[in-house]
């Protein structure tokens, strides 16, 4: 992580947290606001400026909801269809390991499309014994949340194939990491 915030980043994060609080009431709004701040903490201002504040909060909120349940050692992955801008997305919630972003990016590029935008926070998450999200915690397990937006694929079969290819890549990475002495 960066030692200090980039000029303008603090204002962006405060604006995003305020929007998150406004979207959800009470504790859920506070939890989402904290998540949004952590989610974009290492994103540059240039990266944040590529999306509207509303779009940034929507992306983080969707990823937050997706991350609410996960067992350690089990990768969660979803491929989302193209949005109004014509961009599809891939999201992960997985134990943090080396080579994740590069390996997933290669799988996407092998589909013949370009990556448009990427956010990759590594968050320390405390979960209950059943895998439910408790809180962001310094002593929690490091989880890699990857959000990649890319050009639309030609058909539904390609999205299924991409998901299967990325799941295979994640399994290979897990095998290598577990086998490393």
Order of helices and strands: HHHHEEHEEEEH
Give the averaged pLDDT, no decimals.
Answer: 95
Question: How would you sum up the global shape?
Answer: globular
How many E-type strands? Answer: 6
* Helix coverage percent: 40-55%
Broad structural category: alpha+beta
Radius of gyration using CA atoms only: 16 Å
Strand content: 15-25%
Instruction: Summarize the biggest pleated sheet.
Output: 6 strands, antiparallel
Poorly predicted segments: none
Q: In angstroms, what separates the terminal alpha carbons?
A: 27 Å
* Total of DSSP H or I helical runs spanning 4+ residues: 6
List the helices and strands and how they pair.
Elements: H1 9-23, H2 26-39, H3 45-48, H4 53-66, E1 76-80, E2 87-95, H5 100-109, E3 115-119, E4 122-127, E5 133-136, E6 141-151, H6 156-179
Antiparallel strand pairs: 1-2, 2-6, 3-6, 4-5, 4-6
Helix pairs in contact: 1-2, 1-4, 2-4, 5-6
Provide a concise account of the structure shown.
The chain has 181 residues and is of the alpha+beta class. The chain contains six helices and six strands; from the N terminus they run ααααββαββββα.
Explain this structure to me?
With 181 residues, this protein is of the alpha+beta class. Helices cover 45% and strands 22% of the residues. The chain contains six helices and six strands, in the order ααααββαββββα. The chain has helices spanning 9-23, 26-39, 45-48, 53-66, 100-109, 156-179; strands at residues 76-80, 87-95, 115-119, 122-127, 133-136, 141-151. Strands 1, 2, 3, 4, 5 and 6 form a six-stranded antiparallel sheet that branches. A hairpin with a 6-residue loop joins strand 1 (76-80) and strand 2. Helix 1 packs across helix 4, helix 2 packs across helix 4 (53-66) and helix 5 packs antiparallel against helix 6. The longest helix is centred in the last third of the chain and has 24 residues, at 156-179. The model has no long low-confidence stretch (mean pLDDT 95).
